[in-house]
Protein backbone atom coordinates (compact mmCIF):
# COMPACT_ATOMS: atom_id res chain seq x y z
CA UNK A 1 0.00 0.00 0.00
CA UNK A 2 1.51 3.37 -0.95
CA UNK A 3 0.89 6.26 1.41
CA UNK A 4 1.12 9.80 0.05
CA UNK A 5 0.87 12.63 2.61
CA UNK A 6 -1.95 14.39 0.76
CA UNK A 7 -3.84 11.12 0.26
CA UNK A 8 -3.40 10.30 3.90
CA UNK A 9 -4.56 13.70 5.09
CA UNK A 10 -7.65 13.67 2.87
CA UNK A 11 -8.44 10.10 3.87
CA UNK A 12 -8.08 10.91 7.52
CA UNK A 13 -10.18 14.06 7.25
CA UNK A 14 -12.98 12.20 5.48
CA UNK A 15 -12.75 9.44 8.08
CA UNK A 16 -13.10 11.77 10.99
CA UNK A 17 -16.19 13.44 9.57
CA UNK A 18 -17.60 10.35 7.86
CA UNK A 19 -21.35 10.24 8.13
CA UNK A 20 -21.45 6.69 9.39
CA UNK A 21 -23.59 5.32 12.19
CA UNK A 22 -23.92 8.03 14.80
CA UNK A 23 -23.65 7.70 18.54
CA UNK A 24 -26.00 10.36 19.83
CA UNK A 25 -25.61 13.16 17.28
CA UNK A 26 -21.89 12.51 16.74
CA UNK A 27 -21.12 10.64 13.46
CA UNK A 28 -18.69 7.83 14.25
CA UNK A 29 -15.41 7.95 12.34
CA UNK A 30 -14.30 5.13 10.07
CA UNK A 31 -11.19 3.07 10.80
CA UNK A 32 -10.88 1.98 7.17
CA UNK A 33 -10.99 5.58 5.94
CA UNK A 34 -8.70 6.90 8.65
CA UNK A 35 -5.96 4.39 7.83
CA UNK A 36 -6.62 4.26 4.07
CA UNK A 37 -3.25 5.75 3.32
CA UNK A 38 -1.42 3.25 5.54
CA UNK A 39 -2.94 -0.25 5.52
CA UNK A 40 -6.26 -2.06 5.26
CA UNK A 41 -8.37 -2.55 8.40
CA UNK A 42 -9.97 -5.99 8.57
CA UNK A 43 -12.34 -7.95 10.77
CA UNK A 44 -12.82 -11.65 11.44
CA UNK A 45 -16.43 -12.50 10.66
CA UNK A 46 -18.11 -15.24 12.69
CA UNK A 47 -20.20 -17.80 10.84
CA UNK A 48 -23.37 -16.56 12.55
CA UNK A 49 -22.93 -13.13 11.00
CA UNK A 50 -22.89 -14.79 7.57
CA UNK A 51 -25.68 -17.31 8.02
CA UNK A 52 -27.88 -15.05 10.17
CA UNK A 53 -27.06 -11.46 9.14
CA UNK A 54 -27.72 -8.61 11.55
CA UNK A 55 -28.38 -5.21 9.85
CA UNK A 56 -26.59 -3.27 12.60
CA UNK A 57 -23.54 -5.56 12.39
CA UNK A 58 -23.52 -5.39 8.58
CA UNK A 59 -23.66 -1.59 8.76
CA UNK A 60 -20.78 -1.49 11.24
CA UNK A 61 -18.66 -3.80 9.06
CA UNK A 62 -19.36 -1.71 5.96
CA UNK A 63 -18.53 1.54 7.73
CA UNK A 64 -15.45 0.47 9.68
CA UNK A 65 -13.60 -2.13 7.60
CA UNK A 66 -12.27 -2.74 4.07
CA UNK A 67 -11.14 -6.34 4.61
CA UNK A 68 -12.71 -9.47 6.09
CA UNK A 69 -11.51 -12.90 7.19
CA UNK A 70 -13.87 -15.80 8.00
CA UNK A 71 -13.25 -16.80 11.60
CA UNK A 72 -14.19 -20.45 11.04
CA UNK A 73 -16.26 -21.20 7.96
CA UNK A 74 -13.33 -21.84 5.59
CA UNK A 75 -11.53 -24.18 7.99
CA UNK A 76 -11.17 -27.71 6.69
CA UNK A 77 -13.65 -29.27 9.19
CA UNK A 78 -16.37 -26.85 8.07
CA UNK A 79 -15.84 -26.55 4.31
CA UNK A 80 -14.71 -30.17 3.63
CA UNK A 81 -16.12 -32.26 6.47
CA UNK A 82 -16.02 -35.59 4.64
CA UNK A 83 -13.72 -36.96 1.97
CA UNK A 84 -16.30 -36.64 -0.79
CA UNK A 85 -18.38 -33.80 0.67
CA UNK A 86 -17.78 -30.06 0.57
CA UNK A 87 -20.08 -27.51 2.21
CA UNK A 88 -19.54 -24.26 0.34
CA UNK A 89 -22.80 -22.63 1.46
CA UNK A 90 -21.49 -20.34 4.22
CA UNK A 91 -18.26 -19.57 2.33
CA UNK A 92 -20.24 -18.62 -0.80
CA UNK A 93 -22.30 -16.22 1.31
CA UNK A 94 -19.16 -14.81 2.93
CA UNK A 95 -17.64 -14.16 -0.50
CA UNK A 96 -20.88 -12.63 -1.79
CA UNK A 97 -21.03 -10.32 1.26
CA UNK A 98 -17.43 -9.33 0.64
CA UNK A 99 -18.11 -8.50 -3.02
CA UNK A 100 -21.27 -6.53 -2.14
CA UNK A 101 -19.25 -4.42 0.28
CA UNK A 102 -16.00 -4.15 -1.66
CA UNK A 103 -14.01 -5.93 1.06
CA UNK A 104 -10.55 -7.44 0.49
CA UNK A 105 -11.22 -11.05 1.44
CA UNK A 106 -8.72 -13.31 3.20
CA UNK A 107 -9.10 -17.10 3.10
CA UNK A 108 -8.40 -18.69 6.49
CA UNK A 109 -6.97 -21.35 6.24
CA UNK A 110 -5.90 -24.09 3.85
CA UNK A 111 -3.42 -26.24 5.85
CA UNK A 112 -3.55 -26.32 9.66
CA UNK A 113 -2.98 -29.03 12.29
CA UNK A 114 -6.21 -28.03 14.12
CA UNK A 115 -9.87 -28.20 13.01
CA UNK A 116 -8.87 -30.75 10.35
CA UNK A 117 -10.91 -33.99 10.28
CA UNK A 118 -9.15 -37.26 11.13
CA UNK A 119 -10.06 -38.77 7.70
CA UNK A 120 -7.66 -36.32 6.04
CA UNK A 121 -4.71 -38.17 7.54
CA UNK A 122 -6.03 -41.69 6.95
CA UNK A 123 -6.26 -44.04 3.92
CA UNK A 124 -8.97 -45.99 5.78
CA UNK A 125 -10.39 -45.57 9.32
CA UNK A 126 -7.48 -45.92 11.69
CA UNK A 127 -4.96 -46.50 8.89
CA UNK A 128 -2.47 -43.62 8.39
CA UNK A 129 -2.31 -42.21 4.87
CA UNK A 130 0.91 -42.47 2.88
CA UNK A 131 2.88 -39.38 1.79
CA UNK A 132 1.46 -39.65 -1.73
CA UNK A 133 -2.11 -40.12 -0.52
CA UNK A 134 -1.92 -37.11 1.81
CA UNK A 135 -0.36 -34.92 -0.88
CA UNK A 136 -3.23 -35.86 -3.19
CA UNK A 137 -5.76 -35.04 -0.45
CA UNK A 138 -4.04 -31.68 0.20
CA UNK A 139 -3.86 -30.82 -3.50
CA UNK A 140 -7.53 -31.72 -4.14
CA UNK A 141 -8.66 -29.64 -1.15
CA UNK A 142 -6.62 -26.59 -2.14
CA UNK A 143 -7.61 -26.83 -5.82
CA UNK A 144 -11.30 -27.19 -4.94
CA UNK A 145 -11.42 -24.49 -2.25
CA UNK A 146 -8.92 -21.86 -3.40
CA UNK A 147 -9.81 -22.62 -7.01
CA UNK A 148 -13.51 -22.04 -6.37
CA UNK A 149 -12.84 -18.53 -5.11
CA UNK A 150 -10.09 -17.63 -7.56
CA UNK A 151 -10.27 -13.91 -8.27
CA UNK A 152 -12.66 -13.36 -5.34
CA UNK A 153 -10.52 -14.12 -2.28
CA UNK A 154 -7.55 -11.77 -2.39
CA UNK A 155 -5.15 -13.69 -0.15
CA UNK A 156 -4.86 -17.03 1.67
CA UNK A 157 -3.41 -18.12 4.97
CA UNK A 158 -1.90 -21.05 3.10
CA UNK A 159 -0.32 -22.67 6.16
CA UNK A 160 -1.31 -21.76 9.71
CA UNK A 161 0.78 -22.32 12.85
CA UNK A 162 3.44 -24.72 11.54
CA UNK A 163 6.01 -23.63 14.16
CA UNK A 164 6.64 -24.30 17.84
CA UNK A 165 7.51 -21.33 20.03
CA UNK A 166 11.21 -22.29 19.83
CA UNK A 167 11.14 -21.93 16.03
CA UNK A 168 11.23 -25.63 15.20
CA UNK A 169 8.57 -27.22 12.99
CA UNK A 170 5.49 -28.42 14.87
CA UNK A 171 5.19 -32.23 14.90
CA UNK A 172 1.84 -32.20 13.09
CA UNK A 173 0.31 -35.08 11.06
CA UNK A 174 1.15 -33.02 7.95
CA UNK A 175 4.82 -33.11 8.85
CA UNK A 176 4.86 -36.70 10.17
CA UNK A 177 3.24 -38.17 7.05
CA UNK A 178 4.54 -35.94 4.22
CA UNK A 179 7.77 -34.56 5.73
CA UNK A 180 9.12 -31.05 6.28
CA UNK A 181 8.40 -30.19 2.63
CA UNK A 182 4.61 -30.26 3.15
CA UNK A 183 4.70 -26.47 3.38
CA UNK A 184 6.29 -26.20 -0.09
CA UNK A 185 3.56 -28.36 -1.59
CA UNK A 186 0.85 -26.30 0.12
CA UNK A 187 2.21 -23.02 -1.24
CA UNK A 188 2.73 -24.45 -4.76
CA UNK A 189 -0.78 -25.96 -4.88
CA UNK A 190 -2.27 -22.65 -3.67
CA UNK A 191 -0.40 -20.68 -6.33
CA UNK A 192 -1.57 -23.16 -9.01
CA UNK A 193 -5.18 -22.97 -7.74
CA UNK A 194 -5.31 -19.16 -7.81
CA UNK A 195 -2.25 -17.48 -9.34
CA UNK A 196 -3.67 -14.03 -8.53
CA UNK A 197 -4.13 -14.59 -4.80
CA UNK A 198 -1.59 -13.38 -2.25
CA UNK A 199 -0.06 -16.23 -0.25
CA UNK A 200 0.68 -15.93 3.47
CA UNK A 201 2.32 -17.91 6.25
CA UNK A 202 0.38 -17.16 9.47
CA UNK A 203 1.28 -17.82 13.13
CA UNK A 204 0.85 -16.60 16.71
CA UNK A 205 3.44 -15.46 19.31
CA UNK A 206 5.59 -14.16 16.47
CA UNK A 207 7.00 -11.55 18.86
CA UNK A 208 9.11 -14.35 20.39
CA UNK A 209 12.63 -14.07 18.97
CA UNK A 210 13.07 -17.84 18.51
CA UNK A 211 9.70 -18.19 16.74
CA UNK A 212 10.34 -15.14 14.57
CA UNK A 213 13.74 -16.55 13.56
CA UNK A 214 12.08 -19.88 12.78
CA UNK A 215 9.55 -18.10 10.55
CA UNK A 216 12.36 -16.31 8.73
CA UNK A 217 14.10 -19.65 8.10
CA UNK A 218 10.80 -21.19 6.99
CA UNK A 219 10.08 -18.42 4.46
CA UNK A 220 13.66 -18.43 3.17
CA UNK A 221 13.36 -22.20 2.60
CA UNK A 222 10.03 -21.78 0.80
CA UNK A 223 11.49 -19.14 -1.50
CA UNK A 224 14.57 -21.28 -2.21
CA UNK A 225 12.13 -24.05 -3.23
CA UNK A 226 10.52 -21.69 -5.73
CA UNK A 227 7.43 -20.80 -3.66
CA UNK A 228 5.92 -17.31 -3.59
CA UNK A 229 5.23 -15.91 -0.10
CA UNK A 230 3.66 -12.44 -0.23
CA UNK A 231 3.47 -11.71 3.50
CA UNK A 232 3.92 -13.24 6.92
CA UNK A 233 0.89 -13.03 9.20
CA UNK A 234 1.52 -12.03 12.83
CA UNK A 235 -1.70 -13.13 14.52
CA UNK A 236 -1.16 -10.70 17.46
CA UNK A 237 -3.32 -12.21 20.20
CA UNK A 238 -2.05 -10.07 23.07
CA UNK A 239 -2.62 -9.49 26.80
CA UNK A 240 -2.41 -6.31 28.83
CA UNK A 241 1.12 -7.01 30.06
CA UNK A 242 2.62 -8.91 27.12
CA UNK A 243 4.23 -8.61 24.65
CA UNK A 244 6.33 -5.45 24.82
CA UNK A 245 6.20 -3.08 21.85
CA UNK A 246 9.93 -3.60 21.35
CA UNK A 247 9.47 -7.36 20.81
CA UNK A 248 6.70 -6.76 18.29
CA UNK A 249 8.73 -4.10 16.47
CA UNK A 250 11.78 -6.37 16.21
CA UNK A 251 9.58 -9.04 14.63
CA UNK A 252 7.86 -6.65 12.22
CA UNK A 253 11.29 -5.60 10.97
CA UNK A 254 12.71 -9.14 10.72
CA UNK A 255 9.62 -10.69 9.12
CA UNK A 256 9.23 -7.84 6.63
CA UNK A 257 12.89 -8.33 5.68
CA UNK A 258 12.18 -12.00 4.98
CA UNK A 259 8.83 -11.74 3.18
CA UNK A 260 8.65 -8.12 2.07
CA UNK A 261 5.33 -7.55 3.88
CA UNK A 262 3.74 -8.28 7.25
CA UNK A 263 0.04 -8.53 8.04
CA UNK A 264 -1.38 -8.18 11.55
CA UNK A 265 -3.94 -10.92 11.04
CA UNK A 266 -5.84 -11.64 14.30
CA UNK A 267 -5.43 -8.65 16.62
CA UNK A 268 -7.10 -8.64 20.01
CA UNK A 269 -6.01 -7.69 23.54
CA UNK A 270 -7.29 -9.85 26.38
CA UNK A 271 -7.98 -7.78 29.53
CA UNK A 272 -8.94 -10.87 31.53
CA UNK A 273 -6.52 -12.55 33.95
CA UNK A 274 -4.26 -15.06 32.22
CA UNK A 275 -4.40 -18.59 33.67
CA UNK A 276 -0.90 -19.52 34.87
CA UNK A 277 -0.70 -22.60 32.59
CA UNK A 278 -1.55 -20.79 29.36
CA UNK A 279 0.55 -18.79 26.88
CA UNK A 280 0.15 -17.91 23.18
CA UNK A 281 -3.03 -18.78 21.30
CA UNK A 282 -2.98 -22.55 20.89
CA UNK A 283 -6.62 -23.53 20.66
CA UNK A 284 -5.72 -26.92 22.10
CA UNK A 285 -5.07 -25.38 25.53
CA UNK A 286 -7.72 -24.71 28.21
CA UNK A 287 -8.01 -23.76 31.91
CA UNK A 288 -10.61 -24.27 34.64
CA UNK A 289 -13.11 -21.46 35.34
CA UNK A 290 -12.97 -19.43 38.55
CA UNK A 291 -14.47 -16.06 39.66
CA UNK A 292 -10.92 -14.68 39.87
CA UNK A 293 -10.47 -15.32 36.14
CA UNK A 294 -13.74 -13.60 35.19
CA UNK A 295 -13.73 -10.24 37.03
CA UNK A 296 -15.65 -8.05 34.51
CA UNK A 297 -18.92 -9.94 34.13
CA UNK A 298 -20.87 -6.71 34.69
CA UNK A 299 -18.79 -4.56 32.36
CA UNK A 300 -15.27 -3.18 32.04
CA UNK A 301 -14.53 -0.40 34.58
CA UNK A 302 -13.57 3.02 33.16
CA UNK A 303 -9.99 2.70 34.40
CA UNK A 304 -9.57 -0.61 32.56
CA UNK A 305 -11.20 0.85 29.42
CA UNK A 306 -8.55 3.58 29.55
CA UNK A 307 -5.72 1.05 30.00
CA UNK A 308 -7.01 -0.99 27.05
CA UNK A 309 -7.33 2.17 24.95
CA UNK A 310 -3.73 3.16 25.65
CA UNK A 311 -2.41 -0.31 24.91
CA UNK A 312 -4.22 -0.45 21.55
CA UNK A 313 -3.00 3.06 20.72
CA UNK A 314 0.57 2.01 21.52
CA UNK A 315 0.41 -0.84 19.02
CA UNK A 316 -1.20 1.35 16.34
CA UNK A 317 1.53 3.97 16.74
CA UNK A 318 3.97 1.14 16.10
CA UNK A 319 2.00 -0.08 13.06
CA UNK A 320 1.78 3.48 11.71
CA UNK A 321 5.55 3.84 12.05
CA UNK A 322 5.97 0.67 9.96
CA UNK A 323 3.04 1.24 7.57
CA UNK A 324 5.44 0.87 4.63
CA UNK A 325 5.72 -2.86 5.34
CA UNK A 326 2.33 -3.56 6.95
CA UNK A 327 -0.43 -4.45 4.49
CA UNK A 328 -3.33 -5.02 6.81
CA UNK A 329 -4.44 -4.95 10.43
CA UNK A 330 -7.31 -7.35 11.08
CA UNK A 331 -9.23 -7.51 14.37
CA UNK A 332 -10.13 -11.02 15.46
CA UNK A 333 -13.84 -10.37 15.88
CA UNK A 334 -16.37 -7.59 15.35
CA UNK A 335 -17.30 -6.96 18.98
CA UNK A 336 -16.67 -8.13 22.53
CA UNK A 337 -19.65 -10.46 22.49
CA UNK A 338 -18.22 -12.35 19.49
CA UNK A 339 -14.63 -12.55 20.75
CA UNK A 340 -13.13 -16.02 21.04
CA UNK A 341 -11.83 -14.85 24.42
CA UNK A 342 -15.33 -15.44 25.85
CA UNK A 343 -14.57 -19.15 25.50
CA UNK A 344 -10.74 -19.51 25.43
CA UNK A 345 -8.74 -20.47 27.34
CA UNK A 346 -11.55 -20.53 29.91
CA UNK A 347 -15.14 -21.20 28.85
CA UNK A 348 -17.96 -18.84 29.85
CA UNK A 349 -16.00 -15.68 30.59
CA UNK A 350 -17.04 -12.09 29.72
CA UNK A 351 -14.38 -10.75 27.39
CA UNK A 352 -13.62 -7.11 26.52
CA UNK A 353 -10.86 -7.61 23.94
CA UNK A 354 -12.02 -5.56 20.93
CA UNK A 355 -12.91 -1.99 19.91
CA UNK A 356 -16.70 -2.40 19.92
CA UNK A 357 -18.77 -3.53 22.89
CA UNK A 358 -21.64 -6.04 22.96
CA UNK A 359 -24.09 -3.38 21.71
CA UNK A 360 -21.68 -2.63 18.81
CA UNK A 361 -20.91 0.78 20.33
CA UNK A 362 -17.34 2.10 20.02
CA UNK A 363 -15.28 1.84 23.21
CA UNK A 364 -12.63 4.34 24.36
CA UNK A 365 -10.10 2.06 22.62
CA UNK A 366 -11.80 2.81 19.27
CA UNK A 367 -11.34 6.57 19.74
CA UNK A 368 -7.74 6.08 20.87
CA UNK A 369 -6.90 3.98 17.80
CA UNK A 370 -8.62 6.43 15.42
CA UNK A 371 -6.67 9.35 16.92
CA UNK A 372 -3.33 7.69 16.11
CA UNK A 373 -4.15 8.07 12.40
CA UNK A 374 -3.73 11.85 12.65
CA UNK A 375 -0.67 11.85 14.94
CA UNK A 376 2.63 12.80 13.35
CA UNK A 377 4.78 9.61 13.37
O1 LIG B 1 -20.55 -23.79 15.85
C1 LIG B 1 -20.41 -24.78 16.88
C2 LIG B 1 -21.72 -24.88 17.66
O2 LIG B 1 -22.75 -25.35 16.80
C3 LIG B 1 -21.54 -25.85 18.83
O3 LIG B 1 -22.69 -25.85 19.64
C4 LIG B 1 -20.33 -25.41 19.68
C5 LIG B 1 -20.08 -26.42 20.77
O4 LIG B 1 -18.94 -26.02 21.47
O5 LIG B 1 -19.13 -25.33 18.86
C6 LIG B 1 -19.29 -24.36 17.82
O6 LIG B 1 -18.12 -24.34 17.03
C7 LIG B 1 -17.03 -23.67 17.69
C8 LIG B 1 -16.56 -22.52 16.77
O7 LIG B 1 -15.39 -21.88 17.31
C9 LIG B 1 -17.65 -21.46 16.59
O8 LIG B 1 -17.92 -20.88 17.82
C10 LIG B 1 -15.89 -24.68 17.86
O9 LIG B 1 -16.30 -25.65 18.81
C11 LIG B 1 -14.64 -23.95 18.37
O10 LIG B 1 -13.54 -24.86 18.37
C12 LIG B 1 -14.30 -22.80 17.41
O11 LIG B 1 -13.20 -22.09 17.98
C13 LIG B 1 -12.47 -21.31 17.02
C14 LIG B 1 -10.99 -21.70 17.13
O12 LIG B 1 -10.21 -20.89 16.26
C15 LIG B 1 -10.80 -23.14 16.71
O13 LIG B 1 -11.12 -23.24 15.34
C16 LIG B 1 -12.63 -19.82 17.37
O14 LIG B 1 -13.97 -19.41 17.12
C17 LIG B 1 -11.69 -18.99 16.53
O15 LIG B 1 -11.70 -17.62 16.96
C18 LIG B 1 -10.26 -19.50 16.66
O16 LIG B 1 -9.47 -18.78 15.78
C19 LIG B 1 -8.09 -19.18 15.75
C20 LIG B 1 -7.60 -19.03 14.34
O17 LIG B 1 -8.40 -19.82 13.48
C21 LIG B 1 -6.13 -19.40 14.25
N1 LIG B 1 -5.35 -18.57 15.17
C22 LIG B 1 -5.79 -18.67 16.57
C23 LIG B 1 -7.25 -18.25 16.65
C24 LIG B 1 -7.71 -18.27 18.09
O18 LIG B 1 -7.65 -19.60 18.57
UniProtKB/TrEMBL annotation:
Keyword hit for Hydrolase: yes
Documented EC number(s): 3.2.1.8
Gene Ontology terms describing biological process: xylan catabolic process
One Pfam family matching this protein: Glyco_hydro_10
GO molecular-function term, one example from the UniProt record: endo-1,4-beta-xylanase activity
InterPro entries found in the cross-reference section: GH, GH10, GH10_dom
Reactions that this protein is recorded to catalyse: Endohydrolysis of (1->4)-beta-D-xylosidic linkages in xylans
Domain GH10: 25-372
SUPFAM superfamilies: (Trans)glycosidases
Keywords: Carbohydrate metabolism, Glycosidase, Hydrolase, Polysaccharide degradation, Xylan degradation
SMART domains found in the cross-reference section: Glyco_10
Similarity remark: Belongs to the glycosyl hydrolase 10 (cellulase F) family.
Name of protein: Beta-xylanase
Protein species of origin: Botrimarina colliarenosi
